Amino acid sequence: MATRIIRKGISLAVRGLGSNMEGVDREVTLRTAYQNVAQKVFECTTANGRDKQDVELLPVSKLKPATDLEILYKHEGVRHFGENYVQELVGKAAVLPRDVKWHFIGSLQTNKCKQLARIENLYAVETVDSLQKAKKLAEARAKYCPEAEAIRCSIEINTSGEEQKAGLSEEADILEVVEFFLSGDSKHVILHGLMTIGSWDASHGEAEENKDFAKLVEWKKKLDSKYRLDLKLSMGMSADYAQAIKQGSNEIRVGVGIFGARPPRKA
Ligand SMILES: *Cc1c(COP(=O)(O)O)cnc(C)c1O
């Protein structure tokens, strides 16, 4: 598959569509990287005895141009993208097709919830880490786009205990947010799962198991049995997705592994 694309890239360039040489190169690079990751995810999923549809690959496109997303949309059939910055997401949502399903995976600020919830094709917010933010998302969705699909929310849990990481870690706080979603007070947000970013140490250590991922799995078990749920787990990034799949992840979020190194964020 990859060779076919590379040949196509070369032949397009040779045919004198050279004005867009860089675009052609980018298309080849990006599609090849995407296909490689997708293939590895597939192999890893089946090697662990899991079903293909149990693990989704979410390309994380933060700080990458909309043209990159367009390539994967057009040629690889990708519809789900993960973004970290509200302003950037608003801009991309305005220029890319309406059937893109946006996942917000960045650190969520209370005062940005409104802007986020107004994006009609916002599909998921994976970083809900307070009751207040959950409520803000629900209110804004109800007010500004009541006809849009409910936002699938995941509760971010700080599994590593690192201070600089977002996410809830106290049981009472977690239960409070879960219970808000389950109360049925809002049909504009639904509880989908749990999300975590493991520590660098846990994903680069010698241990057989990633202890941060294991902690998220523990939370799932606890909440699933208490409330009779089947929460989905979003864990694993470029460096540690194989391990995350092994430990039960349902969604891995891959940025650099697909799009390459990111430019620094401009202030
Ligand atoms: C940037 C980011 C990713 C992607 O990380 P890579 O190392 O580029 O794969 C995944 N999850 C979150 C929350 C991110 O902010």
TrEMBL record:
<dbReference type="InterPro" id="IPR001608">
    <property type="entry name" value="Ala_racemase_N"/>
</dbReference>
<keyword id="KW-0663">Pyridoxal phosphate</keyword>
<protein>
    <recommendedName>
        <fullName>Pyridoxal phosphate homeostasis protein</fullName>
    </recommendedName>
</protein>
<dbReference type="InterPro" id="IPR011078">
    <property type="entry name" value="PyrdxlP_homeostasis"/>
</dbReference>
<comment type="function">
    <text>Pyridoxal 5'-phosphate (PLP)-binding protein, which may be involved in intracellular homeostatic regulation of pyridoxal 5'-phosphate (PLP), the active form of vitamin B6.</text>
</comment>
<feature type="domain" description="Alanine racemase N-terminal">
    <location>
        <begin position="53"/>
        <end position="263"/>
    </location>
</feature>
<dbReference type="InterPro" id="IPR029066">
    <property type="entry name" value="PLP-binding_barrel"/>
</dbReference>
<feature type="modified residue" description="N6-(pyridoxal phosphate)lysine">
    <location>
        <position position="62"/>
    </location>
</feature>
<dbReference type="Pfam" id="PF01168">
    <property type="entry name" value="Ala_racemase_N"/>
</dbReference>
<dbReference type="GO" id="GO:0030170">
    <property type="term" value="F:pyridoxal phosphate binding"/>
</dbReference>
<comment type="similarity">
    <text>Belongs to the pyridoxal phosphate-binding protein YggS/PROSC family.</text>
</comment>
